[in-house]
Amino acid sequence: MSSGILLAQIFCLVALLVHLASIALVTLRGGRGQAGDARPHGRPRITILRPVCGIEHAIERTLRSGFTLDYPNYELVFCAASRSDPVLPVIRRLIAAHPSVPARLLVGDDRISINPKLNNLAKGWIAARHEWIVMADSNVLMPPDYLDRMLERWDGESGLVCSPPLGSEPDNLGAEFECAYLNTYQARWQLAADAVGQGFAQGKSMLWRRENLDRHGGIAALAADPAEDAAATKAIRANSQRVRLVRQPFTQPLGARALQAVWHRQLRWARLRRVTFPALFGIELFLGGLLPIGLATLLAVTDSVPGWVPPALAIVWYGAEAWMAKRLGWHCSRWSPLAWLLRDLSLPVLWIAAVSGSGFEWRGNQMNVKNDSLLAAEGD
User: Fold this and answer.
1) Nearest to 122 by CA among 83, 86, 81
2) Are 76 and 48 in contact (CB under 8 A)?
3) Is the pLDDT of residue 359 over 70?
4) Could you give the CA distance from residue 6 to residue 84 in angstroms, rounded to a whole number?
């Protein structure tokens, strides 16, 4: 047997074992404890900042979820950049319908970075009345125990608690494709990293103690990187603290998604990861099922392994993803295996596209991951 064939066989075996280990870690981790089992800081007063921009799928439902939390002391601060934003009447209507929940709407755009969401949030951070602050995207669907589930993960080493997004309620193949990326791929690896003490921030939901960010200069410190979650991770690690992730992430109702829009979003995130965490981005090319299953197929064609190995590898690979999704209550439908396959076929293309350019569009803003100022981005 040649050394090349042996290396290919070893790679296929190691890739499968790493894949299965990550799934086992996340599944076991997600089954431990219940929200509120341990809250070292009790139930402190919390400000929830929700940046908004336009009418998204299920926007009234996701924003309304913030008014129905089973938590005694919190306020909602909605942040909009423009007075002409069509979502503002929805917010005003929700505030009027829930007078028992302290809520405010702030409008204005503080240009502190190339990141439009961060610019939108800046006024909310300054206006927040409480020392504990959650930044939560407008499309996050908050369950009643949302805040308790975040506080449950805060311990003596924590500086930030986050939740990656989970896709739910997809209405077409594009949304299934997005679920395939968000859930059993991206969320899985983020939760597995957290399980071994290497959690990193995701901007969908972030729970802060104000002091942990203010010691770096406040919210403006998150402009140190094009993505606020990457800057948040680096700031917290500079404090010799850890980023923790919730045990069960919060969902984002997807509805129908255009494949092109999903692709552009994934490309934006990939290019941001390339410049913020290049070492981690470098190994992404090897994390999907395409390379090990493809190599196993090549080995079978050359009679280097039995013919049953490639289909068995594929069944175990994607069967494990299905098992994890079912055990954790994540979206899994008859279309999911096709979406997982399409995702893994697209991963090398996405990786190559990410290293082949630096520009992207985000909510109408032309941005470039190599530029460190809004002026530079606007001049491209």
Assistant:
1) 81
2) yes
3) no
4) 63
Do 109 and 99 form a contact (C-beta atoms < 8 A)?
A: no
Structure tokens at 111: 């240009």
Determine the straight-line distance between the first and last CA of the chain, rounded to whole angstroms. Answer: 54
For residue 283, the tally of other CB atoms under 10 A from its CB is 8
Residue 181 — φ and ψ, nearest 5°? -75, -50
Q: Which residue did the predictor score with more confidence, 373 or 335?
A: 335
Model confidence pTM above 0.85:
yes
- Do residues 47 and 75 lie in contact, with contact meaning Cβ atoms separated by under 8 Å? yes
DSSP 212-263: HHHTTTGGGGGGGSSSHHHHHHHHHHHTT-EEEE-SSPPEEEEES--HHHHH
pLDDT for 61 = 97
Q: Check: CB of residue 151 under 8 Å from CB of residue 232.
A: no
Nearest C-alpha neighbor of 134 from the set 92, 76, 199? 76
Q: How far apart are CA 335 and CA 341, in angstroms?
A: 10
> Cα separation of 229 and 280, whole Å?
15
Provide the 8-state DSSP code for 64: H
